Structure formats: structure tokens, C-alpha cells
Automatic annotation (TrEMBL):
UniProt-listed Gene3D superfamilies: TT1751-like domain
Annotated InterPro entries: DUF302, TT1751-like_sf
Upper lineage: Bacteria, Pseudomonadati, Bacteroidota, Flavobacteriia, Flavobacteriales
Entry protein name: DUF302 domain-containing protein
Domain DUF302: 70-129, 211-273
Xref: PANTHER family: INNER MEMBRANE OR EXPORTED, SLR5037 PROTEIN
Annotated source species: Gelidibacter salicanalis
Pfam family, one: DUF302
Transmembrane segments: none
Top-rank taxon, per record: Bacteria
Length: 307
């Protein structure tokens, strides 16, 4: 593919407790997040207060590192669009996350952990991917640290929101459901460098965060094969999706996982936009999803190409 077509495709890219929580009673719920595989909380408190509560708790915990904070509403304003208050905070504890990736490196696509906060007509919601969802998607249900993550999330978010958790009715997905993996002809570092360079070369895209899962594992005396995730976006395309379904902010900005398998083979993995469209039950935005799909294919193939 020519450099011109690569740049064109890139310019289209997307923005950017131990008890199980109760099942959702749809008749009594007021505008709940219509998303499979999540745990959510609802409060009448101010979003900024709940968000600050969680951030303060994360900051006080020496085992947890805040990776990034993303204000989607602010990003929307930067491109002359409107979005009600919508924020995401990304954080992790390598002592708990590394064992998941030791079992299945693809779990790094949903790490670090993310909590989405958004306001809807006076009510504030907070949601995150449930551990049953992660367990079924990556076959990591027997990893001991997963239950610890579940308990920690319920305690942290429940306290911040001063609310009880509700689990959406549909929790399980198929193994590796919605994950696209492209085999690279290059070594790990070359693949990642080509991917990052392509993102940096495009003025419509912003790199939001990078995380070296292997380096973080080493920081707690654990081993992990080369595994890095990079997050990037363009609010001109991401904002309309969130205007249609705020829940999709849980999977925004876009992200790609570069990882090296046991046999040395390198892959680039990302979420299939069609999977996200179905997960968040978006009936519109067909043109945007088509553009995003083509751009992600171009980006991953470009990084995997030996030329």
C-alpha cells in the first residue's frame, strides 16, 4: 500500500465485596448502561465528586499506578462537538495483572483496568469490564488474581460512588471474541516502532498512552514475554460514537496490543469494530465504523509488513 493511502486511512481512525453483584432488573432500572459484560453503579452525586473519590483512593494505594486520565467531553470540545460529562481513568497493579497475561497475553488488550464515568440527565454512572467477561474472553477464570481484581474494583468504585454494583444480564463472550490478530513479519521492537511511528506521523491522531506490560511485570519480579499496548484516537470520529452510546467510551480510545508468543512469533491485536458495534448495540454510525475498520486494517498491516 502506498504512503498516500496509508495516511488517508489513518486520518479516518477512531478517537479517539466477595458476593457476586445482583443481576439487572430492567423494569426498575432508570436508563442503565445497555452494555454486555460490565458492572455498573448509579448515583445522584456529582460526577466530579465520584471521580475524585476514586482517583484519591487509587493515588493512596502504593500498589496501583494511574496510567492515564481521558476527558472525552473536553476532547469533543476541541473539535467543536458536544458531549455530556464523560471521563475514563486507567490504572493497574502489575502484581495482579501480570498473572492474567502469563496465562493469556491477549488479556493485555483489556489491561490496564478502566473505569468509565458519565452523566445522564442528572444521574451519574460508573462502569467497568466485569471479571466474568474477562474470564470468558481470555480463558483466565482460574487465575487467582482475577478474583482479587473483582473484589478490589467493587470496593474502590462502590466506595467512590457510594452505591451498590449491578451486573448486566449478559456477561460471557466466546474465547477471543472480537479480537483481530495480525501476524507480523518483523521482530517485536520493529513492529512496535513502525506502529508508533505511523501514529506520530499523522496529525489527526493523538497517542493517549503507552504501557510496557513486560517492564511492569519485571518491576514486581515477575516474568512476561514482550507485550506492549498503545492507545490513540481522533475525537472527530470517536465523539459521534459516544453521542450514540456513551458506554462505548469504555473501549475508547482505540488500542493495539503488540506481543511476542512463546515461539517468537509477533502479533498485533485489536478490537474488531464490528464487535464493539454489537457490544454497545449501536444501530447507526455505519459509515464511521466502516472507516474505522479499514483504517485499523491498514495500520496493523503496515506495522506487520517487512517492507
Amino acid at each position: 500500500m502506498t504512503r498516500l493511502s496509508l495516511l488517508f486511512a489513518f486520518s479516518l481512525l477512531l478517537n479517539s465485596c466477595n458476593d457476586d453483584p445482583p443481576k439487572l432488573n430492567e423494569e426498575n432500572a432508570v436508563e442503565p448502561p445497555n452494555v454486555s459484560g460490565v458492572v455498573y453503579y448509579k448515583t445522584d452525586s456529582k460526577l466530579d465528586v465520584a471521580y475524585a473519590n476514586l482517583k484519591a483512593a487509587l493515588t493512596k494505594n502504593e500498589n496501583i499506578g494511574i496510567v492515564q486520565e481521558i476527558d472525552h467531553a473536553k476532547n469533543a470540545v476541541s473539535v467543536q462537538m458536544e458531549l455530556p460529562p464523560t471521563k475514563v481513568i486507567l490504572f493497574g497493579n502489575p502484581k495482579l495483572g501480570t498473572p492474567l497475561m502469563q496465562k493469556n497475553q491477549l488479556a493485555g488488550l483489556d489491561l490496564p483496568l478502566k473505569v468509565l464515568f458519565y452523566e445522564d440527565r442528572g444521574s451519574v454512572f460508573a462502569l467497568y469490564n466485569s471479571t466474568p467477561y474477562l474470564a470468558s474472553r481470555y480463558d483466565i477464570g482460574k487465575v487467582e488474581s482475577l478474583s482479587q481484581i473483582s473484589d478490589a474494583l467493587q470496593n474502590l468504585v462502590g466506595t467512590a460512588m457510594d452505591a451498590h454494583p449491578v451486573q448486566s444480564s449478559d456477561q460471557d463472550v466466546g474465547l477471543h471474541k472480537g479480537v483481530v490478530s495480525v501476524k507480523s513479519s518483523n521482530d517485536f521492537e520493529t513492529t512496535y516502532t513502525k506502529l508508533k511511528s505511523s501514529l506520530e506521523a499523522n496529525g489527526n491522531l493523538s497517542i493517549m498512552a503507552e504501557l510496557d506490560h513486560q517492564k511492569n511485570a519485571q518491576s514486581v519480579s515477575m516474568k512476561l514475554r514482550p507485550t506492549k499496548v498503545i492507545m490513540f484516537g481522533n475525537p472527530k470520529l470517536g465523539t459521534p460514537l459516544m453521542q450514540s452510546s456513551r458506554g462505548i467510551a469504555l473501549d475508547l480510545p482505540q488500542k493495539m496490543l503488540v506481543w511476542q508468543g512463546a515461539d517468537g512469533t509477533v502479533f498485533i491485536s485489536y478490537n474488531n469494530p464490528a464487535f464493539l458495534k454489537a457490544r454497545y448495540q449501536l444501530e447507526g454510525n455505519a459509515e464511521q465504523f466502516e472507516q474505522i475498520t479499514k483504517a485499523l486494517e491498514t495500520l496493523s498491516n503496515g506495522a506487520a509488513d517487512a517492507n
